[in-house]
Structure formats: C-alpha cells, structure tokens
C-alpha cells in the first residue's frame, strides 16, 4: 500500500492472522486442494473488480503453486502469474524430477534412489548407507496426508516404516545420502528470473537456525556473500529455463567443502523479509517483475542482516536444552536482525492476531505454529 498497490490476501485458517495487517483485504478460504473451484471463483471475481488493469497473483505455499500451475488456463488472463502451462514449477517441486534436472545441468546432488512402489523399496535393501535422508517427492502433499516431511533415517526398519506409510497413500519418495555438516552449512539463493534469462532479483543467504531442528524451515537467516551458491542456482535455472521467483538451497559438505543441492522452493519463501532487511527491495521488485514495470538495477545486498521468524524462539530454546551453547551466545545470534516476520512495530495487529490464534490452538491441544 505504501506504493499505491492494493493487497488482497486469500488464505486458509492457519494463516488467517495476515488479514489483520493494515491495508490488507481478503478472506479465509477453504482448503485449496479440496476446493479449487472456490478459489477459481474468487480469482474470477477479483479479476472482474480489477478491470482492464488486472493484477498479479503471488503464491505463498506449495499447494497454491500447484493450484496455479494446474489451473492457469482457467484463471483470467488479466491476473498475471509466474506459474504457466510449461509445467516447470510442478517439475521443480517434485524432488525426484528436481534431482534429475540438476544432474543434467551439472549441479552436484546427493546420491538418490527414487522409490515409486513397494517393489522399489524392497530393492533398496543393502544399497543404502545409514544414516540417510527420506523425502516425499511432494512434501506438502505428504504432510497433509501422512504428517511426514523430510526425515533422517537410521536403519532399515526406520526407513521401511516411514517409506511404507507414504507408499500406502500412493506417494512416491526419494532416499538420499546424508551430506555431513551442521544446519549453518545450508546456503541459499533467492532470485527472480524472467523469460529473457535476466535476474531481476538475486541475493544470497545462510541459515543460522531452523525449526524443527536440522530438517525444518529456516527460522533465523542471514544475508551472506555466497557466490558459488548463486552460480549453482543460475546453472540449474538456466538449464531448465525457469521463469519466476525461487529460493534454492544447497549444503556445503563438511569434509570436501563442495556444495550439494538440497531443494528449491518455487514460491515466495516465508523468510522473504530478508530481501528488505538486506537492502535489495525484494517486495517491490517481485511485484514489478510480474506486473511488467520497469526496474532500476538492483541495489547491492548488505551482508550480515538477519530475519527472525517467530518459531526461532522454539529453535533457540531447543539449542539451549540439547547443545552446549551459552545464553550469551544465543542472544548474540540475534544481533543484526532487521526483520522479525509477523512481529513489526509498524503494525502489531498481525502479531496480536497470531498470538490469539496460537492460544486457541493450545487450548484445543494442538501444536501452535505448525506449518509456519
């Protein structure tokens, strides 16, 4: 709204607190995977209200990206999306396809086994070294149906238990080698690439903490100079001809120092506030890139700026309990934080709404913050 752009948010119950933000209109919608017709109707009405000027549609979840890609031809053309009929968003969301594309592009990946059925699982016996990593090919679908995302597995029994739970729901998966190193070895590149192959936004970052620990979502991240990470990301995106916003993550091997691709998110990451904190003006560049507005050269990123998401309080508490880390070192890890996610002094209403929502979840015996 500060630049005159009206914001209309469509969200499910988990993220209803965003509607409390100043200048934001919108509504709580039913589950997008079960009720796509309701979302299509809402987008059609928004397109009509927007007239010839139309608008841009930005995805904040994997389920929304999947919906936009599958239904692009039914969404009014006046609503611009990065998701298109080329299927590349869907391809990169799928872990097995992502690793195949990365290998073809010359991007280093962990050793991978694609498990499509119980026969493939049985064939893994004796091939996998433990510990290893199990990932559903479509993580957001697995979390909804089974409640499981990325899992570190320590034995054949552990592997077979988790894999069978996914296969019983007709969900395929990948098993990958474990890349050794702490969570701070996870580096990222966030970019916007247009159809001409130009990068309208590009900045690097590293993880400091994540929640849940080790295999969760980044809760404290820092802008950093990571040229080899940016080069890895460009190699992959240029190879597949990807157009849009993405957040690519790789891990630096603790022994060799080499980077191994871990995943890529093809929608707005929850920690996108780091793009503002480090000075590259990511919010405007994202809107302008999709709206077709002219953009000046990107400002240089300021390294050492941090974004803290509210689950970092849980991640920090876990570090105090399980690792030999002092309170002073923990407090120092927050130095340089410029963006606190939902907690903003400019507008405290979303934070208040979130607190009320999580108190209700606690009262109902649910785990607050799940999926954030």
From TrEMBL:
<dbReference type="GO" id="GO:0046872">
    <property type="term" value="F:metal ion binding"/>
</dbReference>
<keyword id="KW-0547">Nucleotide-binding</keyword>
<feature type="domain" description="ATP-grasp">
    <location>
        <begin position="99"/>
        <end position="291"/>
    </location>
</feature>
<dbReference type="GO" id="GO:0005524">
    <property type="term" value="F:ATP binding"/>
</dbReference>
<protein>
    <recommendedName>
        <fullName>ATP-grasp domain-containing protein</fullName>
    </recommendedName>
</protein>
<dbReference type="InterPro" id="IPR011761">
    <property type="entry name" value="ATP-grasp"/>
</dbReference>
<keyword id="KW-0067">ATP-binding</keyword>
């Amino acid at each position: 709204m500060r630049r005159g752009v009206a914001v209309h948010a469509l969200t499910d119950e988990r993220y209803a607190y965003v509607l409390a933000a100043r200048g934001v209109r919108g509504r709580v919608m039913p589950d997008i995977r079960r009720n796509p017709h309701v979302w299509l109707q809402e987008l059609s009405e928004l397109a009509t209200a927007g007239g010839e000027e139309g608008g841009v549609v930005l995805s904040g979840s994997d389920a929304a990206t999947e919906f936009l890609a599958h239904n692009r031809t039914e969404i009014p053309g006046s609503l611009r999306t990065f998701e298109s009929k080329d299927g590349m968003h869907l391809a990169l969301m799928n872990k097995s396809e992502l690793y195949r594309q990365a290998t073809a592009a010359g991007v280093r990946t962990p050793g991978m086994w694609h498990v499509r059925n119980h026969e493939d699982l049985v064939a893994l016996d004796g091939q996998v070294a433990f510990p290893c990593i199990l990932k559903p090919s479509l993580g957001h679908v697995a979390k909804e149906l089974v409640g499981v995302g990325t899992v570190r597995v320590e034995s054949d029994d552990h592997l077979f238990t988790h894999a069978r739970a996914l296969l019983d729901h007709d969900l395929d998966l990948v098993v990958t080698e474990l890349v050794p190193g702490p969570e701070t070895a996870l580096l990222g590149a966030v970019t916007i690439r247009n159809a001409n192959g130009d990068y309208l936004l590009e900045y690097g970052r590293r993880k400091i903490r994540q929640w849940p620990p080790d295999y969760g979502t980044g809760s404290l991240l820092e802008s950093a100079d990571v040229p080899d990470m940016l080069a890895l990301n460009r190699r992959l995106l240029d190879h597949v001809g990807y157009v849009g916003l993405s957040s690519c993550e790789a891990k630096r091997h603790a022994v060799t120092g080499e980077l191994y691709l871990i995943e890529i998110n093809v929608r707005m990451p929850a920690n996108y506030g780091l793009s503002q904190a480090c000075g590259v003006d990511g919010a405007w560049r994202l809107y302008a890139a999709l709206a077709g507005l002219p953009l000046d050269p990107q400002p240089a990123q300021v390294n050492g700026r941090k974004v803290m998401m509210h689950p970092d309080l849980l991640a920090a508490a876990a570090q105090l309990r399980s690792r030999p880390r002092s309170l002073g070192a923990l407090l120092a890890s927050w130095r340089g934080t410029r963006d606190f996610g939902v907690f903003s002094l400019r507008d405290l209403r979303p934070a208040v709404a979130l607190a009320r929502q999580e108190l209700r979840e606690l009262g109902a015996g649910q785990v607050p913050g799940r999926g954030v």
